[in-house]
Amino acid sequence: MQPRIIRPLDERDTQAFLGLKQIGLSTDPDAFVAALEDDPPSYPDAVRERLSNAAVETGDVILGAFDPALVGIVSVTREDRTKRRHKASLHGMYVVPTYRGKGLGKELLHRVLALARAMRGLEEIQLVVASHNTQVVTLYEGFGFELMWTERRALKMGGRYVDAHHMALDLLKARGEVRATAGAV
After folding, report:
1. What is the rounded distance in angstroms from the CA atom of residue 89 to the CA atom of residue 12?
2. How far lies 159's CA from each of 32, 63, 73, 156, 183, in Å?
3. pLDDT per residue over 52-101, tens digit each?
């Protein structure tokens, strides 16, 4: 059961994006920092604007998997601040339950990382993942992401907490480049 199409999302996909977000937050609420009640009334317009500007050149890529409805998504967004433009965040990774365990997450991750590598000067991709989501942690590790630290009680839902792993993919290391650090001689 592989999706027919994996492609970058654009403004025409706004409603599909919003619908998939609602599904994700209802089926896997502890996998996301977001909550539906946090979205302001202007959120659909903000999503439409973001999708209309998403591209490698803008530093914001959003991929979707369709069959024919949107069944999976992942994003990489580059930092805006000058001193942090060498970093990006991988976020919003979600695959509907009926498509899990079939390689779709792996394919989405492979394709979005290829697009991220095309962002000139990008050196590191960071992500945050619920520590109990061991299958996804293993998937990220398979792509070279390393555990940097674990945040205790990262999310609180009612009286229950979720710990989160902060992971990073060093693109310089993956390309075999050497990097100078402050204080290095």
Report:
1. 24
2. 17, 34, 29, 7, 45
3. 999 999 999 999 999 999 999 999 999 999 999 999 999 999 999 999 99
CA distances from 4 to 11, 68, 99, 104, 111 (A): 20, 7, 12, 11, 15
Q: Residues 138-163: pLDDT tens digits?
A: 999 999 999 999 999 999 998 999 99
Q: What single letter denotes the amino acid at residue 74?
A: V
CB 54 within 8 A of CB 61: yes
Its sign, for the CA torsion 164, 170, 171, 173, is: negative
What tokens appear for 4 in the block? 């027919």
Nearest to 55 by CA among 5, 133, 112: 112
The alpha carbon torsion through 37, 125, 181, 173 (nearest 10 deg) reads 160
pTM of the predicted model as reported, rounded to 2 decimal places:
0.90
User: If you average pLDDT over every residue of the chain, what do you get?
Assistant: 92
CA angle 168, 143, 88 (to 5 degrees): 35
Residue 131 binned pLDDT confidence (cut-offs 50, 70, 90): very high
Domain boundaries, the chain: 5-175
CATH number of the structural domain 5-175: 3.40.630.30
